[in-house]
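Fig. S4 source data, part A: sequence.
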Amino acid sequence: MTTPLSDFERIKAGSRYLRGTIAEGLRDPVTNAISDDDNKLLKFHGSYLQDDRDLREERRKQKLEPAYAFMLRARLPSGVVTPAQWLVYDRLAREYANGTLRITTRQTFQWHGIIKHDLKPTIAAIHDALATTIAACGDVVRNVVSTPNPIESSAHALAYAWATRLSDGLAPRTRAYHEIWLDGEPLVGEPKDEEPLYGATYLPRKFKIGLAIPPLNDVDVFAQDLGLIAIIQDGQLQGFNVAVGGGMGASHGDPSTYPRLASVIGFVTPGQLFAVAEAVVAVQRDWGNRAERKHARLKYTIDHRGLDVFKAEVEARLGFALLPERAYRFEHNGDRYGWVEGADGRWHLTLQIESGRLADVGERRWLSGLRELAQVHEGDFRLTCNQNVIVANVSADQRARIDAIVAAHGLDGYRTHSGIRRHAVACVALPTCGLAMAEAERYLPQLLPRLESLLASHGLHDEPILLRLSGCPNGCSRPYLGEIALVGRGPGRYDLRLGADFRGQRLNRLYAENVDEAAILDALSPLFARYAAERATGEHFGDFLLRSHVIDTSSRQIPLEGVA
């Protein structure tokens, strides 16, 4: 008996390569929304229909439709943005969106609050700026992320080039994007698009690729469906360790869903990399679960089939065996703030952007500050997976000018921030995310001072601790890799998870379920006290909790795959 496909698979199969009736829906003047089926297809074009949940009830009482608007996401391989592009994106944020730019945890920008009739000109402007939004969402290979400062050596630059090649080579080929958004000539009759990798129904679920260069794991490489660990010896790129099956999403109350760290299956040379990536994607295309979307990510495919079986299938399709993995070591997965000099004598300034939100609020003029930087900067910008910005490729004689702009707009807070504030990541959550159960981005500014006060009382103000805050269990902020993580359960209530490591190589564990802020602070205070009194030299908080048996290590989700 054949298992019936999910409804989403039906929609994709009948979409005519992602066209659906999106074009017709955009022209409908009666509503600011589009149909549910088209909204699912719109993801492949880089956008989601959302509504302001703060206004839902009041609009319902007034018998008005919800305050619909669209979120739009760019596809920016490795998060590299030129100053000219930055100025375009800034203008779009002010003209068409809600006046803010948001840096995501996948090294790209999101615009929120775009109304329907402005969606097409916004996408066209992004295209004119030599970027795109296709495949920034949807059941495809998403934006490929990599260590965001790859110009420290020729090997780093080559690794970045590979990330770009993967992004370009694994992108969808459908002409629907150009037809709908860029006034391309529509095909007559049934579309004859070719999707040699994806086919007519694309992948079972989203697919994420990340490339890390030890000793920095600043992309959380083990959270990726396909994680690539660059092996550099004597300044030369030797190749990549290949890790498969990472993923952060889960569902409350459903133990069949869970976060998983990617497992290293071998090593490939640079010349083999693209073929290996394509083969891994193709096996997931053919083997992934298309009946139950909750179980459709690569991690479930691997756990269902077995890692050895999956690896053997990849090798069979390649026609060669993967080499044994090479030794490597990660030191941390946060960003390095302030100025860093590259091997070529150019300088790079990392600025912390809380929750990735660039906006002008009160004395904090971050959106304006980055606009002014873009107007004078002669290098480029790099977005990080921790929601921050690197002002990259600055000549020594331009540093003072950059510093003056940064200070004038309040962008230099990283200089005095606490250790936990410097390593905090939060998802968007309310009011725009339809999946959010609790606050995240809007709650972080309230939570951080309270945590800082507790830490300071135990002499831990400057201690680096990874904090992840998520409005739901789907894991956009990679909460399961936080030494401390809050995962939303409902308004004002969270699961408190503890004990990941500072290198991004161990998942945390559930410590307290469905608790409010008071209970969270009460739980953390004695743990901070013990950490201050009992830690070993150089020991991070998550490692201390594990060594002290504060967290339960009996779960099978304690994998250390990939640790050398």
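Fig. S4 source data, part B ends here. Confidence is low (pLDDT under 50) at residues 556-564.
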